[in-house]
Amino acid sequence: MNKEVDSTVYLMYHELELPGRPLCQNEPGYVRYVVKLKDFESQAQWLKSKSWRGMSVSEALSSSNKRGVAITFDDGCETDLLSAAPTLKQADFNATFYVTVAFLGMPGYMSRSQLQQLSNLGFEIGSHSMTHPYLSDLSDGALQAEIANSKNELEQMTGRSVEHFSCPGGRWNKRVARFARQAGYRSVTTSRSAANSSGSDPFCLGRVAVMRGTDPHRFQQLCQGHGLWRLQAQNLIRTTAKSIFGNSSYDRMRSLLLGRNQ
Ligand SMILES: [Zn+2]
Predict the structure, then answer these.
(1) Which of 82, 188, 200, 233 would give a disulfide with 196, using CB separation of 3.0 to 4.6 Å?
(2) Distance 132 CA to ligand 1 centre (A)
(3) Cα 1 to averaged position of ligand 1 atoms, centre (Å)
(4) How many angstroms does the Cα of residue 3 sit away from the middle of ligand 1?
C-alpha cells in the first residue's frame, strides 16, 4: 500500500441504492453518483482488510494516522442512517454526513429525528447548506443565510457543534471560504479531485467522488490517491464550461448529454 506521503483522500458519497427502494431523484446526472449498497459494503470491507481507517473530517484533520480515508456523504438521504451507518459501525469507522436542512423530511431524505439518531450514533454531522443552491451564484446576504443559518439549525437539532461545510454541486470560491470561516466552521470541502495534506487549505479541501460502477480496482486506486490527475483534468474542463456558459446553461447541456447516453 503505497500512498503519497502525508496525504489523505476524502471520499465523497451520496445516496446508496437498496434493491426495491426508489431513489430520491431519477435524472441521469443524479443516478451516476448513487452507489449500490453492496458495492459500498465491499469498499468498507476492503478498507478494513487493509487495516485502513474510515474517518470523519474532524478525525482526518487532526489525525497523524495516514492509513485511512475520510468518508463523507452529501445531501442527507435516508440511506445515510438506514444503510451507510450500520455498514460503517460494523467496520468501526466514522464518517461525516453533510446535510441540506431543507431536504429533511422530504421523501427519501432523513427526517429530523433520523438526523438526531445518526448524530447520536456518534457520526459527525456537517452542513450542506439550507437549500442546496449554487453558492457562487448568490448575493452576500443569501450566501450568509445558506452558510450560517444551516449551521445554527443543525446545531439546534443535534445538540452538537457543526464545524464542517460541503459545497452544493461543488461550487466553491474564495467568498464561500471567507463566509464559512466567519460563521465559525473549521473546514470546507469541495468536489475538486485532490488528496489533502497537512499543508492544504482547510477551507478548500479536495474530495474524490465514488461513483456508481466505480470498480474495486479503481476504488483502491482512488483511496491511494492514484490517477487523480485524470479526474482533475475532467474537473478543469467542467469548471471552464461552467464559467463560460453559466451554471444554468451548463446544467441544461449536461442533462441533455447524459440523457442521450443512457
Ligand atoms: Zn449535494
Answers:
(1) 200
(2) 6
(3) 31
(4) 28
CA neighbor of 78 nearest in space, from 41, 42, 115: 115
Distance in angstroms between the alpha carbons of the first and the last residue of the chain: 36
Structure pTM? 0.89
Contact 56, 163 (CB under 8 A): no
Q: Where are the beta strands (DSSP E) in 117-243?
A: 124-127, 164-166, 187-189, 196-197, 208-209
**What residues sit around ligand 1, an ion, with C-beta below 5 angstroms?**
74-75, 168
Contact 196, 7 (CB under 8 A): yes
3-class DSSP state for residue 95?
coil
How many angstroms does the Cα of residue 73 sit away from the middle of ligand 1? 9
Q: For 64-82, what is each residue's pLDDT tens digit?
A: 666 899 999 999 999 999 9
Q: How far is the CA of 74 from the centre of ligand 1 (A)?
A: 5
Question: Whole-angstrom Cα distance, residue 103 to residue 83?
Answer: 18
* Alpha carbon 118 to its chain's center: 16
- Is 53 in a helix, a strand, or coil? strand
